[in-house]
Each structure stands twice: as C-alpha cells, then as structure tokens.
C-alpha cells in the first residue's frame, strides 16, 4: 500500500485559541509577549495585529509606538505544545498515526484511511471544516512524503493534494525554506541566488554536499521520497482495531447496534484468520462535539464469536450518550490471545470447563451485572487452609497439583474463620453443640481431630485441631480448636467452612 501523509499548519495557533476563549478579541489586534534579555518581545500575534505591521520577534515597545491600541498578554508556558497534543489526540479519530510537529503543526499518516471519507479531497475538506469550526485558521496538504506535505501546507498557493509521484514538480517553485532548513542554511542559499528549490534540486549532489553538508541533501531526499522519514506517534498503534465513519451523525441505539455489528464482523474475521480471539474489547464512539463515549467488555476465554461478543457489548449500549450524534465508531481488541480454531472446537466435543458455552454464559452473567465477580479456584501447595487454594487466572488454567482428597474439605471455606461458642466434654473430644450467629446447633455426628500445623517459615501462631461435625438437621460444618486446652484457650473455637 502506497503511504500518504498529511501536514496541518496552524499559523495562529495560540492566538486563535485565545480568540475562541474570548470572542471579543477576534477583531482586536493583540499579541502574546515574553521577557527576553530584559525586554518584552512578541512571541505570537493575531491576524489583526499582523495586518497592521506587528510581527513575531518585534519588541513590544516598538509595536506600541505605532499601534497604541495593541493589547499585550503574557505568553502562557507550553500553551502551543498542549494545544497541539490535544488537537492531535482529537485527530486520531481520522487516523491512528498522528504526530506533533512543533512548534505549530501536526503530521498524520493517512495511508488506507481516506477511502472511509470518500477519498482524499473529501477527507481533507472534512478535517479543515471541523478545525475551522473550532476557530482555528489552518492550512493542510496531502502528499507521498512528510517533507512535501509540510512544504505545500506552508508555502504553496495551488492545490493542497499532490498526486502520487509528483513531489519534485510540486517543490520546484517553492522557496528553499520549504525544505525545513535552518535559517543559516537558507541565508547561505540566498546569498548564492538559490532562492527556490528548483534552482538547486537538480544540481550534482557532490557540489551541494561540499557547500551545505549532508543536512540539505537529507531534507531534499526526504521531501522527494528517496530518503526514509519516521514520526513518533502520540499514541501507540493498536494492532487490532476497526473504524467506521458515519455519513450522518448516529443518535439512536439501533444505529449504534448496526455500526457495532459491522465492526465486529470485520474484526472477528481478521482474528479468526490469524487463529486468535479477543479477551477484552473497547468500543469508542467519537461524537461531533469532540467528546468520546466508550464501553468495554471482557471474556472468560479467547473468542472470535461475533454473536456472543455482540450480545456482551449490546448490554452496555444504554451507557452511551450520543448527544448531537456520533460521527465515528472505533472497535479495538485491547487484549488478544491464541484461540482454538473453529474446526478443532467443532470436533473436539469438549465439555465442562473446556466448553465454549460455559465461557459464554459466564461472560453474559458478568455483563448483566457490573458488580458480579466470578472466580475459579485451584489447589495450591500449602497445608494451611487459607493458603491451600488460589484464584485461577482463566477458566482454562491447568492444575499444577491435584486436589487433596484423602481428607474431607468443605465446599465453602470462609475467608476469615468465625468465633463460635462450643460445649465439649473433655479435651480432644468433638463438641456436643455449638452456637453460631445466635443459633444453637446440637452435634449428632463428628469426626476428628485432624491437626494442621501452622507454616512456621511464613508466620507464627498456634496449630489447629479440626473436626467434621453434623448437626441435628443434617448440616455439616468444619470446626477447629485453636491451640491446646488451657486457661487461655478453653473457649477459642472457630467455624471455618461448610460442607455440601
């Protein structure tokens, strides 16, 4: 795929922003100024000030001398940088590859994106219209290279879209400064009468290198296309992402569902072809007012099943506030894992934890109630009951050791043992009855004790003597006495679990 780049230039970035904040300033000449070597120097001027001869770098006192009505404001630290970053993040709705081009521009890799808006011309017109609607005066150009797009956006008065392979023709009439050269290099070129790129572009490279070094050749090569140039994106590129722009803003749940279905079909087709499935997904809805709504879901195992994922996301569509309308939908698989192929699952006839139906059921339960937490426990290599189980990382995680089955263990183990009152005849005998939460439980059957020593290398404390007891209603419990009988321990009994 042929790479295409767009360059956006904001000639009045900070002053346009101030005019948007204070509309009364739109027709008033004003500047931002900062102290330099003891003098207030103009750092940015709005169009009204420039029209009356005020320029960047001029001393404020000199400007006020011929324009007394000039309004002067202190320059805000890093304002341009913050504005470019904010606008760049907004531009990610048009392409995932956006980079800040300080001090007053953005660079976008638009390869493979423009067809979603009906072609490069419509793409450019849409972005320019949106940014001008926010109050910014902008110039934008599209070309095969960053260098040509940058030059055309700032210096060309003709078409802003350069046909593929026509970089040199577009550059010939532009001034030498359009190659992003230093002021010193431009001044040296002008002294030799080389004021346009065309006046030296076809000169021998050896001659240019002797006079101007490698920088000039590098910039020229980058602009024409025989030198590579890379940009540092504002956000990492998502490896699994699908986009769907809208011809008209979407405001209804039905419209969102339709967009979601289209995105899922494209994303899951790609995941299936690569033998992968998603574990987490996020749907971002970019509204026409610049704000973004999003919903996210997770799955118990990697899946590319469109109907299942659609149901999970559809349960949360009510959380999306479309306001005046959504203009772009972006679906990203934020976590992806290898998955069984459809054919293998079809013939495996797996049941239990391996069954896809179980994983999908758990996903639906969690999606319906955000407070729902579902855990699977595996045995851990500890005898101490609280440490003998661990939470599994996934529903399909394999056992590292087997469950202990030589001694009975409760189906439900309390996270913290609860103190109970017990009546026991003599030491080492099981209790005759116990009181738990105000209810008395006469013991009809009992077995024990089973002594479990504390793991001394992990913590200190007393051992436990466990008993398996059944009350008069057939309910079974796991009780223990902490430590030995004595004055301090005679009544320290605890309930630690329940048997099925």
TrEMBL record:
<comment type="similarity">
    <text>Belongs to the DNA polymerase type-Y family.</text>
</comment>
<keyword id="KW-0227">DNA damage</keyword>
<dbReference type="InterPro" id="IPR043502">
    <property type="entry name" value="DNA/RNA_pol_sf"/>
</dbReference>
<protein>
    <submittedName>
        <fullName>Protein ImuB</fullName>
    </submittedName>
</protein>
<dbReference type="InterPro" id="IPR043128">
    <property type="entry name" value="Rev_trsase/Diguanyl_cyclase"/>
</dbReference>
<feature type="domain" description="UmuC">
    <location>
        <begin position="16"/>
        <end position="152"/>
    </location>
</feature>
<dbReference type="GO" id="GO:0006281">
    <property type="term" value="P:DNA repair"/>
</dbReference>
<dbReference type="InterPro" id="IPR050356">
    <property type="entry name" value="SulA_CellDiv_inhibitor"/>
</dbReference>
<dbReference type="Pfam" id="PF00817">
    <property type="entry name" value="IMS"/>
</dbReference>
<dbReference type="InterPro" id="IPR001126">
    <property type="entry name" value="UmuC"/>
</dbReference>
């Amino acid at each position: 795929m042929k790479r295409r780049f767009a360059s956006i230039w904001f000639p009045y970035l900070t002053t346009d922003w101030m005019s948007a904040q204070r509309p009364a300033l739109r027709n008033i000449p004003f500047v931002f100024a900062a102290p330099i070597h003891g003098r207030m120097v103009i750092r940015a001027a709005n169009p009204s000030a420039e029209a009356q001869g005020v320029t960047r770098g001029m001393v404020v006192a000199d400007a006020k001398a011929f324009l007394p009505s000039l309004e002067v404001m202190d320059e805000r630290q890093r304002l341009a940088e913050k504005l470019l970053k904010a606008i760049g993040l907004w531009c990610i709705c048009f392409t995932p590859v956006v980079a800040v081009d300080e001090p007053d521009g953005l660079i976008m890799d638009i390869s493979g994106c423009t067809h979603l808006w009906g072609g490069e011309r419509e793409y450019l017109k849409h972005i320019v219209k949106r940014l001008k609607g926010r109050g910014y005066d902008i110039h934008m150009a599209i070309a095969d290279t960053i260098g040509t797009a940058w030059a055309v956006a700032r210096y060309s008065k003709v078409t802003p879209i350069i046909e593929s392979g026509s970089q040199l023709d577009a550059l010939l009439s532009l001034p030498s400064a359009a190659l992003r050269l230093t002021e010193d290099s431009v001044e040296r070129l002008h002294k030799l009468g080389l004021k346009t790129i065309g006046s030296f572009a076809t000169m021998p490279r050896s001659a240019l290198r002797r006079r101007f070094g490698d920088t000039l050749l590098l910039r020229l090569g980058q602009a024409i296309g025989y030198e590579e140039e890379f940009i540092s994106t504002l956000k990492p590129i998502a490896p699994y992402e699908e986009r769907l722009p809208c011809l008209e803003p979407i405001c209804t749940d039905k419209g969102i569902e339709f967009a979601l279905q289209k995105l899922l079909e494209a994303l899951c087709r790609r995941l299936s072809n690569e033998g992968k499935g998603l574990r987490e997904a996020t749907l971002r809805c970019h509204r026409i007012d610049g704000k973004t709504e999003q919903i996210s879901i997770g799955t118990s195992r990697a899946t590319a099943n469109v109907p299942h994922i659609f149901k999970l996301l559809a349960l949360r569509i009510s959380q999306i506030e479309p306001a005046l309308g959504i203009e772009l939908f972006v679906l990203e698989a934020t976590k992806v894992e290898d998955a069984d192929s459809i054919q293998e699952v079809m013939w495996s006839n797996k049941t239990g934890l391996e069954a896809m139906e179980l994983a999908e059921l758990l996903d639906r339960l969690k999606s319906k109630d955000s407070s729902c937490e579902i855990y699977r426990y595996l045995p851990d290599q500890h005898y101490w009951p609280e440490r003998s189980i661990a939470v599994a990382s996934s529903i399909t995680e394999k056992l590292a050791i087997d469950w202990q089955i030589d001694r009975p263990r409760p189906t439900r183990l309390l996270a913290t043992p609860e103190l109970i009152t017990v009546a026991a005849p003599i030491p080492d005998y099981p209790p005759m009855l116990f009181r738990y939460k105000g209810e008395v439980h006469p013991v009809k059957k009992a077995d024990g004790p089973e002594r479990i020593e504390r793991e001394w290398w992990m913590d200190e404390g007393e051992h436990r003597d466990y008993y398996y007891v059944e009350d008069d209603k057939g309910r079974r419990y796991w009780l223990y006495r902490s430590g030995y009988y004595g004055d301090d321990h005679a009544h320290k009994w605890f309930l630690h679990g329940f048997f099925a």
